[in-house]
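Colleagues,

For the teaching module next term, I've prepared a clean inverse folding example: a structure given as tokens, and then the sequence designed for it. I'd like students to try predicting residues themselves before seeing the answer, so please don't circulate the second half yet.
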């Protein structure tokens, strides 16, 4: 089965084609084509993602990325046919808010014969609704023209599957496998918009164990990055400074709190930590590079300690057999290192799954993989496909 994946939940525009075979127990995925356009540089001047700019860039780039992916997957065939008037009317309605995408679609897509794919998987939430709608409308338009089913995918579910994928070859078309997975699975999902602990009792059976009560961890990294006058996104920049401080062997000079560390719940809070950084900076008359390193070091330590302690509590509460880290913040070196130590020292019977760095960011491979599993489960007939910015797993 070949799945076309489309991801436009935030500031990455991504398209992929993944060939999948096997059942839930022995799936094998071959990435036939994969294209991604990051908007990070465009949003840097705003210090965060600007929704209408993200929407515009998705509309500009989806068709070129699709063509690139189809070519790479060797399913790009010239020889399509002109759209009927009824199809044009439907497309005009679908793309009523994306005139540039409509123009590209009307020019380029009729040139293509229907590619050798079986279904289209698209992110329908959570995320920025203006951005989500662009991908959804694009997927619906392709489904209409090519006669393919469209499968709605929860973005966070995609991140869970991305952590399970293990690359088995480095050939032109990498093969990815999911090993024998032991349930229950506890997923710590950490990104710019999310911090939550979700228990997967079985395939697609979720229970929320804990979540942030205010800022997401990635949001906190970015806000502290701005306080330190670091380039956007702040997370990787803070990580660089923190690692430099650790290498020096110096103990961080500015202590910061660990919010909700001793609470009985598995919930998180990072707003107070962010505020503590702000008050600390106000007390420093001249912020040298060394002082920035100390603050980055202590901030990252505080965040990591909270994540580890809360996850440890959740592992004890749920008796999970597998721990999954997913989302953009799972690329953080110190966080990855700390969770490996946690499992090795205290939970040797738990399998720890962390995505390869290239799969930590938003990507369409994880959406296609999730689409395959949803297809195995059975695509819900007549499911309403709409943007759901606050969509939850549980």
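(Answer key — instructors only)
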């Amino acid at each position: 089965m070949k799945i076309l994946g489309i991801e436009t939940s935030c500031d990455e525009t991504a398209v992929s084609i993944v060939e999948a075979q096997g059942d839930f127990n022995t799936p094998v995925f071959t990435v036939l084509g994969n294209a991604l356009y990051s908007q990070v540089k465009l949003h840097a001047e705003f210090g965060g993602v600007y929704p209408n700019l993200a929407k515009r860039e998705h509309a500009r780039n989806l068709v070129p990325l699709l063509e690139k992916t189809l070519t790479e997957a060797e399913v790009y065939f010239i020889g399509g046919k002109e759209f009927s008037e009824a199809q044009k009317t439907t497309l005009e309605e679908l793309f009523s808010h994306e005139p540039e995408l409509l123009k590209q679609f009307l020019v380029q897509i009729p040139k293509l014969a229907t590619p050798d794919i079986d279904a289209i998987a698209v992110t329908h939430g959570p995320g920025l609704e203006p951005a989500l709608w662009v991908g959804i409308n694009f997927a619906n338009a392709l489904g209409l023209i090519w006669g393919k089913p469209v499968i709605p995918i929860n973005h966070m579910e995609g991140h869970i599957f991305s952590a399970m994928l293990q690359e088995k070859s480095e050939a032109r078309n990498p093969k990815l496998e999911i090993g024998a997975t032991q349930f229950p699975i506890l997923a710590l999902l950490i990104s710019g918009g999310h911090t939550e602990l979700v228990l997967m009792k079985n395939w697609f059976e979720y229970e929320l164990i804990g979540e942030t009560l205010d800022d997401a961890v990635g949001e906190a990294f970015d806000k502290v990055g701005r306080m330190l006058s670091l380039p956007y996104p702040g997370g990787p920049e803070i990580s660089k400074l923190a690692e430099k401080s650790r290498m020096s062997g110096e103990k961080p000079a500015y202590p910061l709190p660990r919010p909700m560390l001793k609470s009985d719940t598995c919930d998180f809070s990072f707003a107070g930590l962010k505020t503590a950084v702000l008050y600390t900076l106000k007390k420093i008359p001249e912020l040298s590079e060394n002082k920035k390193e100390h603050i980055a070091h202590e901030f990252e330590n505080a965040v990591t300690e909270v994540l580890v302690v809360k996850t440890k509590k959740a592992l004890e509460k749920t008796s999970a057999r597998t721990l999954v880290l997913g989302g953009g913040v799972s690329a953080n070196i110190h966080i990855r290192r700390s969770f490996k130590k946690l499992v090795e020292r205290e939970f040797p019977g738990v399998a720890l799954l962390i995505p390869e760095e290239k799969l930590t960011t938003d990507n369409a491979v994880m959406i296609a993989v999730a689409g395959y599993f949803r297809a195995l489960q059975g695509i819900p007939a007549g499911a309403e496909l709409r943007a759901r910015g606050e969509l939850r797993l549980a």
